[in-house]
Amino acid sequence: MSLSEYRKPWLGAISGRERFNRQMHYKSFDRSFNMEFGYWDENFTQWKMFSENNIQNNDEANLFFNFDTFKFLEPSVWMNPVFQSQVWQEKSNTVIMMNPDGLLAEVPKDGHASIPHFLKSSIVTPDDWKKCKETRFRRDDPMRRVDICELLKNYPNDRDFPLGIFCGSMIGRIRDILTFEGLAYAMHDYPEMVEDMVETCCVLVEDFLDQVLDKIQFDFAGGWEDICFKNGPIVGLDFFKNVLVPRYKRIHKKLTVAGIDIWWTDCDGDIRPILPYLLESGINCLFPCEVNCSGHPGELLKEYGQDLRVMGGVDKMVLAEGPEAIKKYLASLLPLVEQGGYIPFCDHRCPPNVKEEYYQYYLLLKREMFGSK
User: What is the pLDDT of residue 93?
Assistant: First the structure.
């Protein structure tokens, strides 16, 4: 199979920006928007098409495959400065180090991808949070000021590609700095501290939105939570409804005034228990929609209709099974692509257990099935 086959760009009759907006709003469009979520780091060394062409990261891969241009503006709405990474102790096969989130983590020396073993968080008590907030979450931090002129140079309002605006994380990043176990204890022992952390995240996002929304025309909004696992969310539904939903609604109000009505959140796992509350909050798109946790995207779109959009939903486990399974699965997505409100791509970063010839086949078949209407 030659490079020209699976790298061939998809032709179209309208701009990528118009295509994305029409597809996401259930309007007629010429062909599906063509994008992928990305790849594990190991893919860049194990797949010959990457290593032999010096493709080292996801941005370079997007250009290599000629995917449609898709830009996302991510501001400084989180901790600044981060904690200094430093090694605390070396063991035979692992290293204990402080990571940028202020966690002591045990990680493999050889650098292979794995979930770190977190030993201790820098934030445990309200006093810890107070010190961290005063030094690392300052609203008056100069890094939080936006250079509008520079942004308009890079993202003019007459661009031909979709541009999104990042609306932060209300609880996912908090989980990162407290750890899963630490968040569970903090919600019980220090609920006021946790809510203040959520409020701080919300205010920093609002400050950013107030600087840019009346200057730049965005096509969508996005966020990151990653608070769901195989059996559902890591936070209780009462906490989600009472603490997170009101903050989402505040952000949504600003987005609505600016004319932004597509808002996705990047959340893995089984998102179904919190999906009604996300929709109530204004978050109306799932990304990347993990199939083996949240189910086939067709089931979700059937249940919620045009109130919901989905981006992703191509089962990564099916991609590892080979052409017959891939063809069968993509056929199940064809009606969803045709009706709109759905953009197909791998339901997480594609893992290295997917053979590159299978992935090449997937890209060719995706173009054949979804590349024209």
Answer: 85
Give the span between the Cα atoms of 340 and 38, in whole angstroms. 23
Q: Are 122 and 103 in contact (CB under 8 A)?
A: yes
**Sheet harboring 86-90: ordered strands across?**
86-90, 94-98, 103-108, 117-121
What does the alpha-carbon distance between residue 271 and residue 289 come to, in Å, rounded to a whole number?
Answer: 8
Closest CA to 292 of 265, 329, 256, 254: 329
Domains, the chain, in order of start with CATH, read 3-81+122-370 (3.20.20.210), 84-121 (no CATH)
Cβ proximity of 171 and 227 under 8 Å:
yes
Q: Which two tokens stand for residue 265?
A: 């959140």
Residue that has been written with the tokens 């109306």 in this structure: 284
The DSSP annotation for 185-230 comes to HHHHH-HHHHHHHHHHHHHHHHHHHHHHTTTS--SEEEEE---EET
Residues of the chain with pLDDT under 70: 1-4, 111-114, 373
